Amino acid sequence: MEYQYALRLRSQWFNKGNPDCEHPRIERETYKGTDTGDDVCTTCGKGSPRGKVRSE
User: Fold this and answer.
1) What are the angstrom distances between the C-alpha of 23 and each of 36, 38, 52?
2) For tag attachment on the chain, is the N or C end more exposed, with fewer CB atoms within 10 Å?
């Protein structure tokens, strides 16, 4: 998922009251097509270093 799209998801999730998310689907994050080394939740937009999204 592109970084800018993840930012929009985070903002939308925050505007919903920032409810808990189980991060059901994780994708690799990219910035202008380049892998950032992070993963991002496709539901809430939370990003973390690869392999850490679900553990936080």
Assistant:
1) 19, 14, 11
2) C
Write out pLDDT tens, residues 17-44.
999 999 999 999 999 999 999 999 999 9
Compute the distance between CA of residue 53 and CA of residue 10 in angstroms, rounded to an integer. 14
Q: What is the CA radius of gyration of the chain?
A: 11
Q: Chain-wide mean pLDDT for the chain?
A: 92
Sheet of 26-31: strand order equals 26-31, 34-41, 47-49
Cα distances (Å, whole numbers) of residue 6 to 15, 24, 27, 33: 14, 15, 10, 14
